[in-house]
Amino acid sequence: MLRYLLPLAAFLAMAVFLAMGLSRDPRAVPSAMIDKPAPAIGLPVLLEPDRKLDVESLRGKVWLLNVWASWCGPCKEELPVLREAAQRHGIALYGLNYKDKPDDARDWLARNGNPYIASASDVDGRVGIEYGVYGVPETFVIDGAGRIRYKHLGLITPELWRTRLQPVIESLQ
Protein backbone atom coordinates (compact mmCIF):
# COMPACT_ATOMS: atom_id res chain seq x y z
CA MET A 1 0.00 0.00 0.00
CA LEU A 2 2.82 2.40 0.89
CA ARG A 3 4.32 1.59 -2.47
CA TYR A 4 1.33 3.29 -4.17
CA LEU A 5 0.83 6.15 -1.72
CA LEU A 6 4.39 7.47 -1.92
CA PRO A 7 4.33 8.17 -5.72
CA LEU A 8 0.81 9.60 -5.37
CA ALA A 9 1.98 11.98 -2.61
CA ALA A 10 4.97 13.06 -4.69
CA PHE A 11 2.72 13.67 -7.71
CA LEU A 12 0.27 15.73 -5.64
CA ALA A 13 3.10 17.84 -4.17
CA MET A 14 4.45 18.55 -7.66
CA ALA A 15 0.95 19.43 -8.90
CA VAL A 16 0.51 21.94 -6.06
CA PHE A 17 3.84 23.64 -6.83
CA LEU A 18 3.01 23.73 -10.54
CA ALA A 19 -0.41 25.26 -9.85
CA MET A 20 1.17 27.89 -7.61
CA GLY A 21 3.67 28.79 -10.33
CA LEU A 22 1.04 29.02 -13.04
CA SER A 23 -1.16 31.31 -10.97
CA ARG A 24 1.54 34.02 -10.76
CA ASP A 25 1.91 36.94 -13.15
CA PRO A 26 5.02 36.21 -15.28
CA ARG A 27 5.79 39.95 -15.46
CA ALA A 28 5.81 40.24 -11.67
CA VAL A 29 9.44 39.23 -11.24
CA PRO A 30 10.84 40.83 -8.12
CA SER A 31 13.76 43.13 -8.79
CA ALA A 32 16.67 43.56 -6.42
CA MET A 33 17.11 47.04 -7.94
CA ILE A 34 13.91 48.54 -6.48
CA ASP A 35 14.80 51.47 -4.16
CA LYS A 36 18.46 51.26 -5.19
CA PRO A 37 20.33 54.00 -7.11
CA ALA A 38 20.00 53.73 -10.88
CA PRO A 39 23.32 52.41 -12.21
CA ALA A 40 25.42 54.79 -14.27
CA ILE A 41 24.88 54.43 -18.00
CA GLY A 42 27.72 56.44 -19.57
CA LEU A 43 27.16 54.84 -22.98
CA PRO A 44 27.13 56.65 -26.33
CA VAL A 45 23.81 58.16 -27.36
CA LEU A 46 22.54 56.26 -30.38
CA LEU A 47 21.86 59.31 -32.56
CA GLU A 48 24.81 61.33 -31.20
CA PRO A 49 27.69 58.87 -30.65
CA ASP A 50 30.04 61.62 -29.46
CA ARG A 51 27.73 62.28 -26.48
CA LYS A 52 27.20 59.94 -23.53
CA LEU A 53 23.99 59.40 -21.56
CA ASP A 54 24.64 60.45 -17.97
CA VAL A 55 21.97 59.60 -15.38
CA GLU A 56 23.46 62.08 -12.90
CA SER A 57 22.30 64.91 -15.18
CA LEU A 58 18.71 63.67 -14.70
CA ARG A 59 18.66 64.22 -10.94
CA GLY A 60 15.76 66.27 -9.68
CA LYS A 61 13.15 64.85 -12.06
CA VAL A 62 11.20 61.64 -12.43
CA TRP A 63 12.11 59.80 -15.63
CA LEU A 64 11.59 56.53 -17.43
CA LEU A 65 14.21 54.21 -18.85
CA ASN A 66 12.73 51.96 -21.54
CA VAL A 67 14.89 49.01 -22.61
CA TRP A 68 14.26 48.17 -26.27
CA ALA A 69 15.76 46.61 -29.40
CA SER A 70 15.09 46.69 -33.14
CA TRP A 71 14.60 42.90 -33.12
CA CYS A 72 11.83 43.14 -30.47
CA GLY A 73 8.24 42.97 -31.77
CA PRO A 74 6.52 44.20 -28.58
CA CYS A 75 8.92 47.18 -28.48
CA LYS A 76 7.37 48.50 -31.67
CA GLU A 77 3.89 47.84 -30.32
CA GLU A 78 4.44 49.89 -27.17
CA LEU A 79 6.00 52.91 -28.91
CA PRO A 80 2.71 54.82 -29.39
CA VAL A 81 1.80 54.29 -25.72
CA LEU A 82 5.20 55.54 -24.55
CA ARG A 83 5.11 58.51 -26.92
CA GLU A 84 1.65 59.62 -25.80
CA ALA A 85 2.38 59.06 -22.12
CA ALA A 86 5.60 61.06 -22.27
CA GLN A 87 3.95 63.94 -24.15
CA ARG A 88 0.68 64.03 -22.23
CA HIS A 89 2.20 63.68 -18.78
CA GLY A 90 5.48 65.49 -19.39
CA ILE A 91 7.58 62.48 -18.41
CA ALA A 92 11.21 62.40 -19.50
CA LEU A 93 11.57 59.21 -21.55
CA TYR A 94 15.01 57.75 -22.20
CA GLY A 95 15.91 54.54 -23.97
CA LEU A 96 18.48 51.82 -23.55
CA ASN A 97 18.99 50.04 -26.86
CA TYR A 98 19.87 46.54 -25.66
CA LYS A 99 22.19 44.08 -27.47
CA ASP A 100 21.47 45.60 -30.86
CA LYS A 101 23.47 46.81 -33.83
CA PRO A 102 23.50 50.64 -33.76
CA ASP A 103 22.72 50.90 -37.50
CA ASP A 104 19.71 48.58 -37.11
CA ALA A 105 18.50 50.58 -34.11
CA ARG A 106 18.85 53.93 -35.91
CA ASP A 107 16.95 52.57 -38.94
CA TRP A 108 14.24 51.19 -36.65
CA LEU A 109 13.76 54.57 -34.94
CA ALA A 110 13.64 56.32 -38.33
CA ARG A 111 10.92 53.91 -39.52
CA ASN A 112 8.83 53.76 -36.35
CA GLY A 113 9.35 57.17 -34.78
CA ASN A 114 11.61 58.14 -31.92
CA PRO A 115 9.80 58.91 -28.64
CA TYR A 116 13.05 59.12 -26.63
CA ILE A 117 14.84 62.26 -25.50
CA ALA A 118 17.97 60.15 -25.97
CA SER A 119 18.68 56.45 -26.25
CA ALA A 120 21.97 54.88 -25.16
CA SER A 121 23.50 52.07 -27.21
CA ASP A 122 24.22 49.04 -24.98
CA VAL A 123 25.73 46.77 -27.66
CA ASP A 124 27.25 44.22 -25.27
CA GLY A 125 24.42 44.34 -22.69
CA ARG A 126 26.71 45.36 -19.81
CA VAL A 127 24.49 48.21 -18.57
CA GLY A 128 21.39 46.06 -19.02
CA ILE A 129 22.95 43.50 -16.69
CA GLU A 130 23.63 46.21 -14.10
CA TYR A 131 19.93 47.15 -14.24
CA GLY A 132 18.91 43.50 -13.91
CA VAL A 133 17.34 43.34 -17.38
CA TYR A 134 15.75 39.98 -18.19
CA GLY A 135 14.77 40.84 -21.77
CA VAL A 136 13.06 43.48 -23.84
CA PRO A 137 10.97 45.47 -23.43
CA GLU A 138 11.44 46.51 -19.83
CA THR A 139 10.70 49.89 -18.30
CA PHE A 140 12.06 51.47 -15.13
CA VAL A 141 10.61 54.44 -13.23
CA ILE A 142 13.41 56.46 -11.64
CA ASP A 143 12.74 59.19 -9.09
CA GLY A 144 14.32 62.62 -8.70
CA ALA A 145 16.90 61.24 -6.28
CA GLY A 146 18.07 58.79 -8.95
CA ARG A 147 16.55 55.68 -7.34
CA ILE A 148 14.67 52.96 -9.21
CA ARG A 149 11.11 52.92 -7.86
CA TYR A 150 9.35 50.55 -10.24
CA LYS A 151 10.24 48.00 -12.90
CA HIS A 152 7.86 46.62 -15.52
CA LEU A 153 8.70 43.56 -17.61
CA GLY A 154 7.06 43.30 -21.00
CA LEU A 155 4.78 45.34 -23.20
CA ILE A 156 3.24 48.55 -21.85
CA THR A 157 -0.38 48.85 -22.93
CA PRO A 158 -2.60 51.90 -22.37
CA GLU A 159 -4.30 50.10 -19.48
CA LEU A 160 -0.97 49.13 -17.90
CA TRP A 161 0.19 52.71 -18.21
CA ARG A 162 -3.00 53.99 -16.55
CA THR A 163 -3.18 51.40 -13.76
CA ARG A 164 0.48 50.77 -12.87
CA LEU A 165 3.03 53.24 -14.19
CA GLN A 166 1.06 56.49 -14.05
CA PRO A 167 0.10 56.06 -10.35
CA VAL A 168 3.74 55.34 -9.44
CA ILE A 169 4.94 58.39 -11.38
CA GLU A 170 2.26 60.66 -9.91
CA SER A 171 3.18 59.55 -6.40
CA LEU A 172 6.79 60.57 -7.05
CA GLN A 173 6.14 64.01 -8.52
UniProtKB/TrEMBL annotation:
Family annotation (InterPro entries): Periplasmic_diS_OxRdtase_DsbE (IPR004799), Redoxin (IPR013740), Thioredoxin-like_sf (IPR036249), Thioredoxin_CS (IPR017937), Thioredoxin_domain (IPR013766), Thioredoxin_ResA/DsbE_sf (IPR050553)
Keywords, in A-Z order: Cytochrome c-type biogenesis, Disulfide bond, Redox-active center
Keyword Disulfide bond applies: yes
Signal peptide: none
Domain of life according to the entry: Bacteria
Molecular functions (GO terms): disulfide oxidoreductase activity
Biological processes annotated in GO: cytochrome complex assembly
Gene Ontology CC: outer membrane-bounded periplasmic space
Positions of the Thioredoxin domain: 32-170
Coiled-coil regions, chain positions: none
Pfam families found in the cross-reference section: Redoxin (PF08534)
Compartment(s): Cell envelope
Protein family according to the UniProt entry: Belongs to the thioredoxin family. DsbE subfamily.
Protein name (database record): Thiol:disulfide interchange protein DsbE
Organism whose genome encodes this protein: Achromobacter arsenitoxydans SY8
